[in-house]
Amino acid sequence: MTSQDKSKLYIGLDIGRTIRGAVVRGDSTILERRQIVAEVRDPLEFIKQLVHMIDGFAAETAGRSAISAVGIGWPGLINQRMNRLEVTPNMLDLSSFDLYGELAKQTGLPIVFENDANAGAYGEWCAGAARGFKDVLFVALGTGIGAGLILDGRLQRGALGFGGEFGHFKIEAGGMECGCGSTGCLETMVSGPNIVRRVREHLFSDPSFSVSQLAGDMEGVLTCERIKEAAREDDELARAVLRETGVFLGMALASVINLLNVEMVVMGGGVMTSGEVLIEPIREETRSRTIPAAFNCCRIVAGELGLDAGIVGAAMLARDATNKN
Amino acid sequence: MTSQDKSKLYIGLDIGRTIRGAVVRGDSTILERRQIVAEVRDPLEFIKQLVHMIDGFAAETAGRSAISAVGIGWPGLINQRMNRLEVTPNMLDLSSFDLYGELAKQTGLPIVFENDANAGAYGEWCAGAARGFKDVLFVALGTGIGAGLILDGRLQRGALGFGGEFGHFKIEAGGMECGCGSTGCLETMVSGPNIVRRVREHLFSDPSFSVSQLAGDMEGVLTCERIKEAAREDDELARAVLRETGVFLGMALASVINLLNVEMVVMGGGVMTSGEVLIEPIREETRSRTIPAAFNCCRIVAGELGLDAGIVGAAMLARDATNKN
């Protein structure tokens, strides 16, 4: 990359119930941010929101011509071979729209879609915890669970770009039913909502936990933030559930480290923000389940970019896709 | 690769309790074969065997100068960054020997070591079932379980070359203790000896299976070959155990396909020779546990090269390592 490429401007968008975006310089620096709640019930309105955000960024810089490309982290499967959003999140019915084509037409800018966890991996790899590493697994732990893989210094998307569905790693032959149609998926135990569910179940089934400070939250909204806070204050229930979370994640991470010999696992996503209290049980369980030679050359760390990982990664993917030739 | 490279000669060795070797032409054709039972109790004798086999092949062709390089599929972890055999199989104590250096010195030929499952993957990719595919998981199902990965058209070894330890994929949080120190590893259920063990256990615990033709084998040596044969003859016990094998393998394969979006899984290794009767339950279980978009673009097939996969792959890895520059 030339120094000129590093000073070019890109837009990175991370799509979820909130659309978060930024203007990112080619050297990974975030210059401007915007966010807006997604109009998921109205696809036309949703597309308008994306175009407006891109236009807004362009107006704040020096017009569209100052923007080199737009990268979009997308919460679903993307068929990279066909430039098609194969599976869109169920919150949003885009079945009769060509989102890629619409955005390209309405903005006149090169548009690059990438699975949001892949974008997060790329962000941490370009500018975060994984900078300088060659073989990295990035896990996005949030409402769902995704993953992105850098192997031998390249983002791995798989045959059609569907890779990274780490949430559907099997951890029990039976196990709970999952939205994907299978059972025993990692996501049924350790996504944000399922961590909260397990706290509730423990409170319900084990009277000794009634002394937990989380018992008082049962009637209101119990969040992962609250559970992590309680764990930091040595609440036994919170600690037990995070240890359990470590066991489930450790099983899956050990399998991946044994198979891929990655040298770093970066834990990112909403559940991991201020999540040091979760890293330790994950690390401990993974250690006990991984072949020592493979574990000893692998660090397990929290991401450095927090929720910006996906935005920065999407922008840098747009940078690298448009500077390829 | 030039047509000259395709006519060069390489030696491929696959190391196990039997050392199997061949002279392989650069176009993947096997020209000469040899095999010998490994002298695992005496490391010096073992090294001599390897040198003798290489010398024998050289004598049959036009001397050592006709051989371009030697590739060796090794049943253990190899530190590719250090050219060091990190973990050698427990049958063989090579701790005081520099096998790599010894072979290079005694033969005067370029020596390339590769994990045996990686070599098998490379063989099926160069000349077998996976020819022409870009993203492939190769599973070697034998006394143990190994795997090799081709992603984006490149063999993936991981940070230090330890990748492919698919046998230590976790399929149960508890589960049986495994030699690796963990519990619930795939290998504890579906390696060759463990398939046999499960047949014995079913016979012991369920009287209805006493009608099985395998009941008669209980006193003697029961083999996977025998179990597959019985399954082909619709023996219920044999079929039940192979279905169960499919469940365990299906869990692990679904996890890998979801994570990596490979377009082909090649099942190889000793247990899979004439193993069509095993492919169907594996395929069925994997289908039921994989995200449809990812399963639909992935074929699960038996290897085409059988036990030659590792020999051909090791030779072709030697070819590609020595023709790199």
Briefly, what is this?
In chain A, the strands form three sheets. A five-stranded mixed beta sheet of chain A has the order 3-2-1-4-7. Chain A is built from eleven helices and twelve strands.
Written description of the protein model:
By secondary structure, chain A is an alpha/beta fold. Chain A contains eleven helices and twelve strands. In chain A, the strands form three sheets. Chain A has a five-stranded mixed sheet. In chain A, strand 5 (78-79) and strand 6 (84-85) form a beta hairpin. In chain A, helix 2 (43-60) runs parallel beside helix 3, helix 7 crosses helix 8 (236-260) and helix 8 (236-260) packs across helix 9. The longest helix of chain A has 25 residues, at 236-260. The model of chain A has no long low-confidence stretch (mean pLDDT 90).
The rounded distance between the terminal residues' Cα atoms of chain A is 11 Å
Identify the most extensive interface between protein chains: A-B, 54 and 54 residues
Largest sheet of chain A: 5 strands, mixed
Average pLDDT, all residues of chain A: 90
Poorly predicted segments of chain A = none
Count up the helices of chain A. Answer: 11
| Strands in their spatial order, largest beta sheet of chain A | 3-2-1-4-7
Count every beta strand of chain A, where a strand is a DSSP E run of 2 or more residues: 12
Cα Rg of chain A: 20 Å
Helix content of chain A: 25-40%
Task: Assign an overall shape of chain A.
Answer: globular
N-to-C SSE string of chain A, H for helix and E for strand: HEEEHEEEHEHEEEHHHHEHHEH
